[in-house]
Amino acid sequence: MVVDKRNLKPLAFLIHEGSPNDAKLFKEVLEELKRRRILRKGDVVLADKGYYSYRNYVMAISRFKVVPLIFPRKNFSLSRLLGMFSYPLEIFLSRSGEKLIFVKLMREFVRLIKEWERFKAERSVIDDLFKVAKNSFALDKLHRYTKRYVKKFVALNVLLVGMVVSRGFREKEALQRLAEWRADRSP
Predict the structure, then answer these.
(1) What's the whole-model pTM score?
(2) What is the C-alpha to C-alpha distance for residues 78 and 181, in angstroms, rounded to an integer?
(3) Same domain (yes/no): 127, 41
(4) What are the DSSP calls for 149-184, one per residue?
(5) Last residue of some domain: 114, 136, 166?
(6) pLDDT tens digits for range 125-149
(7) Where are the alpha helices (DSSP H) in the chain?
(8) How many domains does the chain have?
(9) Residues 86, 141: Cα–Cα separation, whole Å
(10) Predicted confidence band of residue 165 (pLDDT cuts 50, 70, 90)
(11) Do 143 and 100 lie in a common domain?
């Protein structure tokens, strides 16, 4: 599920069989957001450590023209990552402002990745929203037998999450209480 960090409303959700690694799904998430015209050049995409991959940083900037703020792991090396970047050929050969856009994206990326810990509080609120979806709306017990039924069940739950957020549950404490609510009422 992808949410807008400003208002916590769900933007999209993808369903996959099994439990694929998040890092492998990052490209598909960005393509879905671009297809829906939600993702625009220069946007900042905030993602947790599950999406960490040097290739994901490079792909997000070079192909999708967005700033990927994927929380790095312990062995992260900014110099190694920056060594992987080069102008894409179509940008290098163009005479338009594409080079300037690429340089601006790189500057913004380097600035944000150096201070990524500043975004932990925002990411924590988003994590609490995911806990609400899993605990309060039974997404943690997703035992369905057909893909069609899974899609309906997940779509209903994403709708419920959107309605909860629309009703004012946007603060960390309120989301935590709501996530714990189901645990308190179970036998």
Answers:
(1) 0.80
(2) 42
(3) no
(4) HHHHHHHHHHHHHHHHHHTT--SHHHHHHHHHHHHH
(5) 114
(6) 888 888 877 776 666 566 667 778 8
(7) 22-35, 54-62, 78-84, 89-93, 98-114, 120-131, 147-166, 172-185
(8) 2
(9) 45
(10) confident
(11) no
